[in-house]
Amino acid sequence: MQFRSYNQKDNAVVSHILQQHWTDPDFLQEISSVLSATPGHFYVVEDIKELTGVIGYRELPNYFMSYATIHHPVELYIIASKYQHKGIGSFMMRELTQKLKTEGVTEIICYSPATHRDSWDFYMTCGFAEVANISHPEDGCEGCLFKKIL
Length: 150
Prior knowledge:
Elements: E1 2-5, H1 11-21, H2 25-37, E2 42-47, E3 50-59, E4 73-81, H3 88-102, E5 107-113, H4 120-125, E6 129-135, E7 142-149
Parallel strand pairs: 4-5
Antiparallel strand pairs: 1-2, 2-3, 3-4, 5-7, 6-7
């Protein structure tokens, strides 16, 4: 597998992968807008020339800042793979974690809504700790906040 920076030519395939995991058109539009504006914080995985996953981070929003304990946190904004249980998500998380360490990032905060509860074990397997069950400040959706110290 190859981990590389996202670029605009990946947009159609990434959109398809995201639609496998999210159905909310507003959220999908938000992700599309963020990908267009800040492609430097997003990465894709290719396996034998097939794009199979996307991962990205952003600056930690102020509403999550109280959960950070170290001076340079980021938010894991998106992680999605075309296939489940093939090691793609774990590979992306390892690669992103290594990249963030070299950039001086000290911790990753991740919110996952209750509608994606089936992914919570994945975060725990990747070294995240469950911090709190919360209502997301932007939309009120119940979910879980995770944290990983790097």
